[in-house]
What we know:
The chain is an alpha+beta fold. The chain is built from 16 helices and 18 strands.
Amino acid sequence: MNPLSTLQQSLIAKLADAVPASILLTGTEELERYSCDISGIRHARPLLVARPGSTGELSRLMGSCHRHDIQVVPQGGLTGLVGAAVASHPAGEIVVSLERMDRVRSVDAIDYAMVVEAGCVLERAKAAADAAGCLLPITLGSQGSCRIGGNIATNAGGFNVLRYGMTRDLVLGLEAVLPDGRVWDGLRVLRKDNRGYDLKQLFIGSEGTLGIVTAAALKVFPRPDQVETAFLALGSIEAALELYSRARRECSDLISAFELILRPGLEVALNSRADLRDPLGDRHPVYVLAELSAAGRIDLRGLLEGFLADAGDIVQDGVIASSRAQAERLWLLREVMVDRQGRGGPYLRSDVSVPISRLAAFVADALSALALSHPDATPITYGHVGDGNLHLNVIPPQGMNPNEMAQMIHEAEEVLFEVLDRHGGSISAEHGIGTVKQQAYLSRVDPVTLELSRRIKDAFDPRHLLSDGRIFNR
Ligand SMILES: Cc1cc2nc3c(=O)[nH]c(=O)nc-3n(C[C@H](O)[C@H](O)[C@H](O)COP(=O)(O)OP(=O)(O)OC[C@H]3O[C@@H](n4cnc5c(N)ncnc54)[C@H](O)[C@@H]3O)c2cc1C
């Protein structure tokens, strides 16, 4: 056990009027666990970590932080990719981890709603919905670690957005503790409620800057009892878009995922694990991993087979999973590609969106621009076609020193964003701005949006004590 620093002793003394010392962690090794998000981009030790067990306890803690001018940053599962959940304030910051507030309070198959505490791991919330015959459709590669509060604060997307929408579309109600300790209670399962401003929308996607979400009422859906997965090869992104458009019309809008993978991405997966095989014999430039799902009386398999038989003019080859295990093997290719693309080192991780109709032109322009500016780098392109959301990542050549690599990543991002601007796209489709994308955001945001955003921040947090410096600076 390391001795407490003077600053830590003074903080504990200040907070002692509000919360028991037992919810405060101060040990060096303990703090290390809360010091870095999964991207590894930012690493900073908080002054201490508070782990409240209830909304009341968090409210008292925040009230005390407000009285004593203590900077706070909320933390969920630390799977965020823009450095927003890691302590970074120059005055020092305490982390509030929601991990002890992790109960699923209810799942109701008449309201088709569930109420979950913010610290609940997404996978557990999904399992609770499943056990009640329901589907919580937020589906992310990080779902074993990310937490509901983090999903709400980042307005998380994922594989099923094209069918069910972003997290924002799934939130019926919220409860949050404000930066001065007051509790804002909007935790309702009402489907329709037009009384005045819809304040919950402000918390969703606010990256922890307006309040700390403590619980959420989320929409759930009938759990699909049929899921069909297909891995398809196409000649171009244009063909993938045509297939997507036809599939929406001809498959009764039952597509729940439509993932694009360019050949270099598939090769990352195939070269990383000896047990993975190319599901198709020949090489193709573009692949789509598509999923249809449905509950009730519908012949989903027949629908998919009939659709693909008619799509022979654009689909070059393909396989439909014949079992759950085979479907999981197909999804594993995508998962391994995401995990291994950077070979464990730094790389440009982008998360951009363009209008769906411009995806093909954007990728063509971006890849040509990157081939000119960084011919030695390897672009890996994949994404959620139905959302116009692409991860066009750039892997530096091996053997670069860390400074050269950082410089290359920065330059490649500028090249990519310049092309994106021409196509009217967004520099952040899913992950948010945090601290990492702040410069790129501020150089693009229009002055009216920025001024209104600053006023909203001032209304919720006039002293900028919560997540100060995320999205924009004071
Ligand atoms: C392998 C992998 C796959 C991913 N796939 C996707 C994807 O498909 N789509 C997608 O959108 N994202 C994806 N992500 C990013 C990440 O998982 C999401 O952003 C997720 O929603 C973050 O949740 P978290 O609990 O880990 O939040 P954290 O990383 O802990 O925090 C993220 C932000 O939320 C704030 N926050 C956390 N909890 C609260 C709270 N209770 N109240 C207020 N603010 C809070 C933090 O301060 C921070 O600003 C992926 C990440 C990984 C590593």
